[in-house]
Amino acid sequence: MAYTAIDESTLYIQGGIILPPPGGTAKITSQFYALDLTQDWNATSPPWKALTSPTTTATQISSQSMTISPDRQTLTLWSVFPTVAVNYSITDASWTKVPLSVGLVISGSGLRAASDPATGAVYIPGVGPLNSNYMVRYNYLTGLVTLINIPMALVPTLDSYSFVWCQPRKTYNGTKMILFGGDGSGPSVASLSILDIPTMTWTVGKDAPDARSEMACAVAGDNFVVWGGYKEMLSVDSVAVPTTPLIFNIKTGKWTEKFVRGANGNKTEGAPGGVPGTGAGGGSGSGSGGGGSGSGPVGGGESPIAGGGSNIGSGEIVGGGGITTTSGAAIGGGVAVGVGVLAGIIFLIIQRRRQRSTKDFEMVSPSLSIMPSPAEDRVVQLEPISNESYQSKLNNQQQQQQEMSYNNVQYTPRSEPPGVSGLPPSYSASSRSRPVIPSYYEVTGIPGDPRELVRQLSR
């Protein structure tokens, strides 16, 4: 599922996989919903609005990503197999394809895109020529795709990661970041922690009513909103969570059933009310989630179907980060939301989700430049690749992966990836297997997903 929020005013959720009850058949969905964050509402009756779903199967996947244009009028969905992007015009509710080179292939089992709100440039780690370790920078205006090399020593694998662009926000002077939920080596947790950016101090908030993983989230005024996801269990498979959103009032430090927008951004000098200004942080999680939206909640109505990377169930939304169940719940991973982080890119290698095969568009191949290393400066033109050639390269990549040792560092679970020492004491990077989410091959019977091997190795 893909999700994003625009200027603390609207939360968008799209796509995912709807997982059925035991014995049922999973299905891919392209559901698309928006949640109004400018008006007051109750958690039992959130103002979801059904939007025009994409007409192509390219966005009927889980683990896709969504970015926003600088003018806040266009949403872009990014997918893979082949790398595909489609634009949604908020103004006229229409979908158009974005010309991309079919020579770019994702190297891991998930895709996260982040856009620079000032320039509109989109950055996507793990997408590039086959057998490479690059981050793509895409320029909408020129169609230029620039490849930025990612040092293997710093980032040995881009399988399972979270990637966002954070810019300063008005809320709390742009000094807070929230980390909620997720799961490490155990079940999902309901803990919440807040990081004070100036002092780099974590503080512990109150646990949520429900533990969740890989959910969608957004901040608006004093409200931290969570939707979808799933609950990881030790004794049984992942289970559904309620379809109603969770709401945390940052000012009072309490979970509530009422979303009260009020004035935008209470410019509090210290920590939010109810949360101490000092102390060790709590909260745990792996991955950042996303919920999806569906045709309506169980029992009818126009509301999303709870879900994270994938959906399990009927009447819930599923998306880039979780799974929803027939009872209207989602499955996802931990979520970190900047209430106002210094401008820049937060790059956490945590549990992520997998992408699915998609339908080809009539694409053109823009020019591609590789950022020069100290020893070279070159520009490479990518030629259009036929479906047969593209599939052949994917098959070659699968064969190379099969020759890898099972203990290859790329697939070895890490108890703590580099750079996470600054996380709350109770936070642990995931070392468990992924939730049991069906692959695209299992859902459709269509072979050719190179990430199926990654999925097998990760078990």
Main sheet: strands, sense, barrel? 6 strands, mixed
Portion of residues in beta strands equals 25-35%
If you compute it from the alpha carbons, what radius of gyration comes out, rounded to the nearest whole angstrom?
20 Å
Instruction: Give the % helix.
Output: under 10%
Which term fits the overall shape? globular
With helices defined by DSSP (H or I, 4 residues minimum), what is the helix count?
Answer: 3
Please give the alpha-carbon distance between the first and last residues: 22 Å
| Poorly predicted sequence stretches spanning 5 or more consecutive residues | 265-303, 306-387, 400-421, 427-441, 446-459
Number of strands: 30
Structural class: mainly beta
Protein name: Galactose oxidase
Organism: Linnemannia hyalina
Transmembrane segments: 329-350
Biased composition (Gly residues): 271-312
Explain how this protein is built:
This protein has 3 helices and 30 strands. With 459 residues, the chain is mainly β. The longest helix has 16 residues, at 387-402. It starts with a strand and ends with a helix. 6% of the residues lie in helices and 30% in strands. The chain has helices spanning 387-402, 440-444, 451-458; strands at 2-6, 10-19, 27-36, 41-42, 48-50, 65-68, 74-79, 84-89, 94-98, 105-106, 114-115, 122-125, 127-128, 134-138, 145-149, 162-166, 176-180, 192-196, 201-204, 216-220, 223-227, 246-249, 254-256, 258-259, 310-312, 329-331, 335-338, 344-348, 367-373, 376-381. Strands 1, 2, 3, 5, 25 and 26 form a 6-stranded mixed sheet that branches. It has a 6-stranded mixed sheet with strand order 11-12-14-15-29-30, with no helix packed on it. Strands 6-7-8-9 form a 4-stranded antiparallel sheet, with no helix packed on it. The model is unreliable at 265-303, 306-387, 400-421, 427-441 and 446-459 (pLDDT under 50). It has one domain. Residues 421-434 have a biased composition (Low complexity). The chain crosses the membrane at residues 329-350. Residues 449-459 have a biased composition (Basic and acidic residues).
